[in-house]
Amino acid sequence: MSIFCGQNLICVRGERTVFTDLDFNLDAGGALVLIGPNGSGKSSLLRLMSGLLPQAAGSLSWNNEEIREDPEAHADRMHYVGHHDAVKPVLSVAENVAFWASLRGRGKKTQSAVMAALEAFGIAHLAEVPGRFLSAGQKRRVNLARILAAPAPLWLLDEPTTALDKQTIGALEATIAAHRAGGGMVVISTHSDMGLESFKVLDLAGFAIRQAS
């Protein structure tokens, strides 16, 4: 059983300590919801979990092995979807998702996997449309399709429901439920309620350091 955990984590951005002494533990099939006011470090923690941002102190581990000992292995086991939409404007919807899937070595299975992912998020009919013509909600769905186009046990999602309609949020909730049922993990930063079952909540406001005025 896979276990993803952090102990005594400290995050520093510039000269500011964002949070300190933060712990979390996530088992296979688990979900962790990050809450807290703007600036409390939700996005920073997700970037730290992804390996894109180094922790100032503390440890991050997967199955009791430090992530920094093998960052490539950690990159292969996770999907990070930030709140900025990484959609290339000159590529079609299908090409955008295929690009990300190809980075994980899907090979000949890429095309079928991409179309299945687009179908899951209701944008298969936009497969040939260039990214520059998409609405904000459509771009968000393109980015979320990446998590289905190539398997990874750990999903790190920063405000995934932004610009999504109710129907698409339902599709995302079903996608997350299926992922967890198969032993996958998910960490979500959100300001809105989502239909998740048996999840943990981590309020980052409790780990912030008051800055001198």
Which strand order spans the largest sheet, edge to edge or round the barrel? 6-7-8-3-9
Q: How many strands, which pairing sense, and closed or not: the largest β-sheet?
A: 5 strands, parallel
Q: Which stretches are poorly predicted, pLDDT < 50 over at least 5 residues?
A: none
Number of helices: 6
Shape: globular
Mean pLDDT: 91
Beta fraction: 25-35%
**Into which percent range does the helicity of residues fall?**
25-40%
Structural Rg? 17 Å
Structural class by sheet pairing and helices: alpha/beta
Terminal-residue CA separation = 46 Å
Account of the 3D structure:
This protein is 31% helix and 25% strand. It is globular, with a radius of gyration of 17 Å. A hairpin with a 2-residue loop joins strand 4 (57-62) and strand 5. The protein is an alpha/beta fold and 213 residues long. The protein has helices at 42-50, 71-77, 93-102, 110-120, 136-149, 166-181; strands at 3-13, 16-27, 31-35, 57-62, 65-66, 78-81, 154-158, 185-189, 200-203. The strands form two sheets. The chain has a five-stranded parallel beta sheet with strand order 6-7-8-3-9, with helices on both faces.
